[in-house]
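Entry 14. Two folds queued back to back today. First construct below, sequence then structure tokens.
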Amino acid sequence: MNGGGATTGTTAPTATHGRTITYEPGLDGLRAVSVAGVLFFHACATSGLDRWFRGGNLGVSVFFTLSGFLITTLLLTEHHRDGRVDLGRFWTRRIRRLVPASLTVVVAVTLLSTTSWFDLRRADAWAALASVTNWHVITGGEARLLQTIVGPLGPTWSLGVEEQAYLVLGFGAWWATRLARPARAVAIGAGAVVVVSVVVANVVSTWSPRLEFGTDVRAAEIAVGCLLAVALRERRAWIDAHARVLDLAGAAALAAMVVAFLTAGTAPWLLRGGHAALALVWAVAITSVLAHGRVHRSLALVPFVAVGRWSYSLYLVHWPVFLVLSPERTGIDGVALVAVKIAVATAVAVALHLLVEQPLRASTASTRTTVTAWLATSVAAGVLAAVVLA
């Protein structure tokens, strides 16, 4: 869960450290709140506290909307600055940002599945490597649903949704920049996605996993972020003029987010367009951060920013760590076990972030080298899974 896999920022271009959009620490803070919801949801569910943080899974929804906002902002800003969108550079950035950490986790889980810690199927590893875990869960049906989604790589379903969306969004933005009004074309396309996604959610199936994990159904949350990026583009003066109102709205949105994380659970209405409706709340929170008021200052506190920067690695490692630290292995349960799980997952995530994610993200290798390395290492990991796993 990467919250965009892009530089966190507003719509203002800057050349600082190679960024194309200005860094906004408050958005990293929003990432922290989102990933905390997911972590506490899963930690409590595996520690005998399944009634706590019942809606923490909605943290994934926040990341979807933030991803749509950041990626669209980045692409439109690049077009404004350079007069075009360089898809090669776009995909190179995505690979460097997402692949090293996720590939490391897949390989580690594969190797550890030779022990009693995990029971990973080779098909689950292959799906994670190909970024299609969400569809793998759906096509597996009821018989394999729990084995896959509760398996050590189950949470990679949301990464699959985002990366599939990046594919569509990248080509969509590239095509839009060939029209007279690119931003308008992106807005029309994103609006159509929201409508179609909500309609599909109400007609395609009655099976909950299809409605929860399908890219077509969850695309509305990402598209709302795209619409927000277009709406706020070159609106700095408007944001400043309404900063106080936006700050109050953002505080209300954050409060609603926390309430949802605590209580929402897996209510049926969420699967029938409710996720798209909540994306509007997440959009208000994002806009409020850009107003640089109290919401921004609160989310820009050092602990929030740090957790936000670790959020991708945290999301990748937390579930395998939680499965290892079971009540049977640790001899504890409840709040104490939740604390241990969060602490250990954070330590592992920080190591992954510092040793793998950040160094390779900063690589200056060419597009050809990056793509070749990605394909070669992914194939090698797939072969490893074929040999090691049953």
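Second construct, same run, same settings:
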Amino acid sequence: MFPYFKVFIDNQSLMNILWHSDEHTHGFRRSGQIGEGLVSFCELDLTALEDKLKELAGIPLASTNYDMIRNGIFDAAELLKDKHDYAFFFLVGTLNNILATPVYIQDNIEARRLEHLQSCISILKDMPTLQEIFQYALCFCLDKDNLSDRSASERLVGFYFQFPDLSKFTVQTGFAVAPVKKGALDYEKVAEIHRENITDTRQTLEAIHEDCSKVSLLPYYLIQSLDEMLFLEFMEMLKHGIQVKRCKLCGRYFVLIDKRKREYCGREYSEGKTCQDVGPMLHYEQRLKTDTYLQKFETEYNKIYSRFYRADGKLASERSGKDMTREEFRAWSKAASKAKADYQKRLITGEEMMSIVRAGC
């Protein structure tokens, strides 16, 4: 049944997706880090969709309104275009499948067509519900700062207690002959095959062997709906120990892709700058207003910088005793910046920081 994904997960926790819209339309892409699709779905603003559903609810479900309601349904789906790729992909595919379901002559044709519309509206209404379920999953099971005293298995049991039907949720799996590189799917080779639009099995195998690539049977997940894809990402995050955190600037969840301490996400905040770009500076500026030691640091830094700026470009014979060369400033700045970072992490006191800063003057 179209549409569907074949999802291969590689050893870098990236998802490689073979997608099929119909018999003739297909492609291959690397979706990104496990969890990014789930988090972006949970952070979608569905207000416009919910407003559209209210609008549709005000139109009587009658044959005379069939085209108006049908158009309204697809207008609602279009609201997700360019906002979430696989949510839009599966939503439109499901709506098309419902409306393309044959209506037989022995049926009450008009009543059956209206049932199709009602099913489409129900699918749209499921979107906010799905979002609420997986928002709860992120908060309860994957939030690094929430219930940190509980194990992953304890939190999962608690989640299933809240949503018992999901404890029986399954996705289909399969194996495919595919080119491999370092034990994982060879993304570049598969992408090349799809760029050349090779669809015949024999041609595909010949293309794989053409450059002596290694081939293997690789497992994949067969995904045929949005809820399956969201559930797959959720379970893979649990399996790989991938957690999420709320951005200290915009307040939205983001995926922790490694063990580094991160406080801000990579979403755009303003004028092309991300939260990651802006957040640390805003946080520092706020703290600077109340922290006397950081104020002293800034004063000392500006004083030393002016000594460097005044001397930069001068000949050695032109420099005074208080001038500082570029090399001297770099060495001092490196030590001073480390002292400030250690102070902000509470590894040293404010007095110790200032002692280091002044020692290099």
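Quick look at the second one. Residues 181 and 214 are 7 Å apart (CA to CA). Strands lie at 4-9, 14-20, 26-33, 172-181, 184-185, 214-223, 244-246, 253-255, 268-270, 273-274.
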